Amino acid sequence: MSDNASRTATAHVHGHSEEDYLRCSHGWKSWAFTLDHKRIGVMYLIAILISFLLGGVMALVLRAELFTPDKLFLSEDMYNQMFTLHGAVMTFLFLIPSIPAALGNFMLPVMLGVKDVAFPRMNLASFYLWVFGAIFFLMAILLGGLDTGWTFYTPYSTTTNTAVIAASMGVFILGFSSIFTGLNFLVTINTMRPAGMTWFRMPLFLWSLYATSIIQVLATPVLGITGLLLIAERTLGIGIFDPARGGDPVLFQHFFWFYSHPAVYIMILPAMGVVSELVSTFSRKPIFGYRFIAYSSIAIALLGFLVWGHHMFVSGQSALAATVFSALTFTVSIPSAIKVFNWLATMYKGAISLETPMCYALAFIFLFGIGGLTGLYLGALATDVHLHDTYFVVAHFHYVMVGGTLIAFLGGLHYWWPKMFGRMYNEMWARIACLIVFVGFNATFFPQFVLGSRGMPRRYARYDTEFVYFHQFSTSGAMLLGCGLMLCAGVLIHSLLRGRKAPANPWGSSTLEWKCSSPPPHHNFDWPPVVSAPYQYDHIVYDPNHQGYVEVEDIPEEEDELTNAPVESHS
Amino acid sequence: MSVSSLGISLTGLLAAGNDGTIAFPSQGSTVAPAVDSLFYIITAISAFFFVLIVAVMIYFVVRYRRRPGHDVEKSPSHNTALEITWSVIPGLLLVYIFAQGFLTFLDMRKPPEGAYEIQVVGRKWSWAFQYPNGVVQNELHLPLDRPVRLVMSSEDVIHSLFIPAFRVKQDLVPGRYSKVWFRTTKPGEYRLYCAEYCGQQHSTMVADVIVHEAGEFEPWLQAEVDRMNDLPPAELGELLYQRQGCVQCHAIDNNTTGKVGPSFLGTFGTEQPLADGQTVTVDENYIRQSILDPVSQVRAGYQPVMPTYQGRLKDREINALVEFIKSLGQ
Known about the structure:
The structure holds 2 protein chains of 2 kinds.
Chain A (H helix, E strand, L loop, with lengths): L1 H6 L20 H5 L4 H29 L10 H37 L7 H23 L13 H4 L4 H28 L12 H33 L12 H35 L6 H14 L15 H29 L8 H24 L1 H7 L3 H31 L5 H27 L14 H31 L31 E2 L8 E4 L4 E4 L15 E2 L3
Antiparallel strand pairs in A: 1-4, 2-3
Chain B lengths: L1 H13 L17 H32 L16 H30 L6 E8 L2 E5 L5 E2 L2 E3 L4 E8 L4 E5 L4 E5 L5 E6 L4 E7 L11 E6 L5 H14 L2 H11 L2 H4 L21 E3 L5 E3 L2 H9 L22 H13 L3
Parallel strand pairs in B: 1-5, 4-10
Antiparallel strand pairs in B: 1-2, 2-3, 5-8, 6-7, 6-9, 9-10, 11-12
Helix pairs in contact in B: 1-2, 2-3, 5-8
Pathway (chain A): Energy metabolism; oxidative phosphorylation
Pfam families (chain A): COX1
Protein name (chain A): Cytochrome c oxidase subunit 1
């Protein structure tokens, strides 16, 4: 340690040449019209957390109702509206934007070593489009609710009296928000990488955002058009989906899932990117098989376009189509499996510390493992016929989308929290919250696999008494999960008020965002950062004076394909 | 196949008598054992990999935890041979799972020649099962050990017929016929659910499935025909009211909770306002018209959502319904 301490004298401890992004300007206008990607990221963060709270409260109300087989306090109408809005709010307003739009917006330029995204105004526009889309969702709630399920299947959605048009407009507008973000990220990564930031020196989180953006730009327009067609069908009765007018109701499902299956990868790919960062940092090991992980992100993004038909094995599509989609579906699981093995191999012979973000990363591997493996039952034709539209599916996609995306989002939030707000949180309480969330999550959703294989259909307000035990177990778990999330929120809010000041690099990470102060200055870096391979920890040592990690000058020479001489950036 | 034998021994382990296993309801059709065994094969493979991953993860966390005196050890940051191995082995297992699922699926989709055919109509929110001799029931009665083919259609939105014990499910799409077949293996009562969300009372769109003992199905069916033929009109009307789905939307008392149509109680012979502002007398002609062309004269305050029964009811049956409504008082 004494050797380290002496080296810190020459370490990069950057002074503050300007105020950080939170304090550099004041007043509501400085936020509302900001072009700073960091402020936009923070506004996104607040907005999606409000959505998450709304969707979460609805989830708890639904689970409470299901505590008894018969009516407890929700009418069937109310129940149907509640699960529809829970699904729609969680999917469109929380899960899809959570990591890319909130964490990605904040971190992408900093991790890339540049001042901002390529199109800052477009970035702000994407946020306001999101707000605008969310308002349409709220309008749908006020205009007589929405009871179609988040999937809007025709012809139910063209005949129900509820506010389908407002909600479809909301989805249409949110789609533009998503496309803007994706386009911005693609252009930023393609054109603005500073000298030295080669493709294979990009942190894996950026690879995952790049792959995600491809999906956002290519798939979202299909959803937007589908929403417009649905509105046209309802208002003009043009007969695209209505069999009485020569339309095809199953066509809607093809359109819908052509977007909505890739949308699952919009949620899970950034989550995998976050986990790659966390596992490497907290093991102090270069990520194992960097190129395989990077390529597997792109592979998932592309293969994800070819599997939408696996939602429709019992819809009446041809047996041939079902077979082809089943086969293609299995191909997606291979790149996902590769990533899991790579994370484990990264931990091998590492120096693993279980700080809160790493606890979430381990929870992610556990939950995503279950979510991914249960996908095999649904990809296989014979078992899917039985399990389709049962609670097995509900459990599966909650493990993937919530156990995967939400847990990785929380891991990423805890990881980058000190960077974003310049404050540390209470490590012990944050870990306890993580544990409660993990236990509560499994107690909620694991029983639902059994419910499903035993034949409990999804979206039932009332159910047969034979299922009551599993439902009560699940509901109790959901309440515990709710408590865990509230504790998590409490810990983070407490840190804003009372947390100790965060050092520039509290975890010993080696990617560029940790080279600027916490929170970052308005232009991210006081001077252009030195770009080197992203996961090299040898020259990053703990400095007790700063209660954080610092870089030492004399970088030990490690010859590796990723380690070349550092190059000064020109950003 | 060592993997499949592992799956089958697991089946035995989890089997818990006649009431199915912890994972499944009892097996009521010939395809059920194949589905279950594939399920257990996947479970065995998944459990193996999951336990492996979590065990390795926990071992690494304990073995390589950051502590004084322990630092990162040198290890390669990639290993192409290893990475190809752990891509190819799961890949081969996936091919095996896909093939098993495909083969069983083919059995599910191809009914044998000469299967006994039952027509199924799904509508918000009830099932109607019609037998070749014209009997209509809200319960699905089935012969034992004989291939049965359901030819299904929907009158409004998409529904899905799901019998967990038979491991079959198929959507009913308006505007086309869909088919599903199975062969029962065990007499008894089972549950049938609507698995595709279809609106307000989706969760009550359930029916009982009764598989008759050997030799008891035909006599039951004949008895039903005789019963229909012998009933006085008003009683036949009441039976049809129950079986044809009228009961889902029309009350016959003052309790109209959850009903989207008007109650039949005390309406016959009364004057009622229509949605277009005119009035109509509820008489034999109005009832007949409402059954055959329901949206032509919709009562004020109600939506034009009723499906037509044109071609689905015989004259004798329409008359019976009129008599039944008449019997509910003026």
